[in-house]
Structure formats: structure tokens, C-alpha cells
Amino acid sequence: MNLAEMNLAHLISGEPWVERLGWTLVHFLWQGMLMAALYLAVRKSLGRASSPNARYLLACAALAAMVAAPLLTFGLLGPSELIQPNPRLAGVPTAASAAGAALLAPLSWNAPGNSRESVLTWVVMLWLVGALAFWVRLMGGCVAAARMQSVPAADAVAPPPRLPRS
Known about the structure:
- It is a single chain.
- The protein is mainly α.
- It has one domain (3-80, 107-151).
- Helix content is 69%, strand content 0%.
- The chain contains 6 helices and no strands.
- The protein has helices spanning 3-13, 16-46, 52-77, 98-104, 115-150, 153-156.
- The radius of gyration is 26 Å and the shape is flat.
């Protein structure tokens, strides 16, 4: 682990959205597997007797459910009011008293010194790195497609060489 990774992990580990997003990603593992298993079961039960359009609509519905599941999970988890405040902001006064805040703040996965802190933080960091990598790949494909579109077709493909007649 290098210093930049540790600084980023330390920087985001106290943020409330990290715990919420981490739990969303963890829950999506089983939700996605369940949706894939349901799709597979329905697809196998339909067999080849169903039309291609029906199979396509089934696949689109499964993919739409996979897009909606993490969004719904993130929304259902709700804002993390009960998460302990960020330790870097310890000197900033809050509306609640210190005693009241201590009663409302249960032990969370982002609590300092808790080994679970690194679990959700690293889950979120790995997901962010993967999302960034796929975004860069997508942008590279868009740039390549734009270049292909800007090059005239006659210049892009050279005509085949003529064979000498015998």
C-alpha cells in the first residue's frame, strides 16, 4: 500500500456516504445474484418456444431491475444521521450537545479503530477505481468512434491491389 492510497482511504473513511454506499454495494452482490438466478429460471422455463422479442424483453427487465436495485437500496438505507461524526471535524461545534450526540451515535462500520472501517472503505475505493477505469475506457471508445467518423471512407480503406493479368 502506498501513501496516496492510505491518504485517500483515511480521507473518505469517516464520511457518512461511504458506509451507505459500501452497504449498497454489499447488498447488491446478493441482489444481483438473485435477479440473475430468477432470470435464468424464467429463461429456461420459457425455452425456445417463446419468441425472440419475449426473451429480449425478459432480459431487458432483468437488466432494468439490476439498475434499479442499488438505487432503491441506497435510498432505503437513508441518510446516515446516526453515524459518528468525522473525527477531523471534532473541533467544529454542532447543534446537539456532546452527551446527546454520544447517545444517538451507535457503533458503526466507520468507527475509528474498528477493523470493519477498512472493509467498507476499501469496497467503496475498489468500486470507484473500477468505475473510473470503465469510464476512461468508454471515453477512449468515444474518441476512437469520433475519429473514425471524421475520416472519409475513401481515405480510411485503401483499394485492393490489382493483380497482373496473364
